[in-house]
Specification:
The complex is a heterodimer of chains A (103) and B (133). Chain A is an alpha+beta fold and 103 residues long. Chain A is built from 3 helices and 6 strands. Chain A is 24% helix and 39% strand. The longest helix of chain A has 10 residues. The chains are: A alpha+beta (103), B alpha+beta (133).
Chain lengths: 103, 133
């Protein structure tokens, strides 16, 4: 991930935000203050996960994004089921990602 | 309620949805998630890597709904009827019976075949709409 690259929203993400009424700033908060970041081996994109108060319940919410050379692009956002984060790690689909080292 | 279809060609994402608050997503095949509201009712289908999963039919959607959502005359009840498990289970039970598709397994599952059939039916309904390209 390139540091300080501008954030861009994919066409899908913009449509999703319109139809789903996710709280303003949720995606940016997850991206900026994620509890964990992963690389999704299935889709070759990055995922940020943060525990958030969403619909009155505290739960993990994930943001899928790609880090291009000139921009970070938000792809999609969705709440995770309880334990889903751990299962994806265990299954090897998600691997931990450190933005400092890109590993 | 209006059903909208769009395709993000840049990132290969197809989305069929009605407006609503998303309470839960159920991944029925790697890359295919059903979006459910707080009552467990279907409000959307998101397909990541759509060109791989949906193959030829996606070319049509790509021409039709790229960069501009298409409003369909179908409603989510019709989609639900096409997609819902035949054994009378709800999506949550369906999901649980599948276990978690968090592997990278991409072979054609029963769920994937069902989704392909659903989008084929959607395509038939949209065939009269003029592509936006």
């Amino acid at each position: 991930m390139q540091p300080n690259t501008p954030v861009r929203y994919s066409f899908h993400f913009i449509q999703q935000m319109e139809s789903r009424s996710f709280p303003d700033g949720l995606a940016e908060r997850i991206f900026e203050y994620a509890d964990a970041r992963y690389f999704d081996l299935l889709h070759n994109n990055l995922v940020a996960v943060k525990r958030e108060d969403y619909l009155g319940v505290t739960r993990d919410v994930s943001l899928a994004f790609v880090a291009l050379e000139d921009a970070t692009v938000f792809l999609t956002i969705y709440p995770l089921k309880e334990g889903q984060q751990g299962r994806r790690l265990q299954a090897g689909r998600w691997v931990r990602y450190d933005p400092e080292t890109s590993l | 309620m209006t059903l909208k279809l769009h395709y993000d060609a840049e990132f290969d994402i197809l989305h069929l949805a009605q407006d609503g608050i998303e309470d839960e997503v159920v991944e029925i095949h790697p890359g295919i998630t059903l979006e459910l509201d707080c009552e467990g009712s279907l409000i959307g289908i998101e397909v990541l890597g759509a060109s791989t999963l949906l193959k030829d039919s996606l070319l049509q959607f790509g021409k039709l709904a790229n960069r501009s959502p298409v409003h369909l005359t179908m409603d989510m009840n019709e989609i639900d009827a096409l997609l819902r498990p035949r054994d009378g289970k709800g999506y949550r039970e369906y999901f649980d019976s599948f276990a978690e598709h968090d592997s990278t397994q991409l072979s054609d599952s029963e769920a994937l075949i069902s989704v392909r059939q659903t989008f084929a039916a959607v395509w038939k309904q949209t065939a009269h709409i003029t592509p936006s390209y």
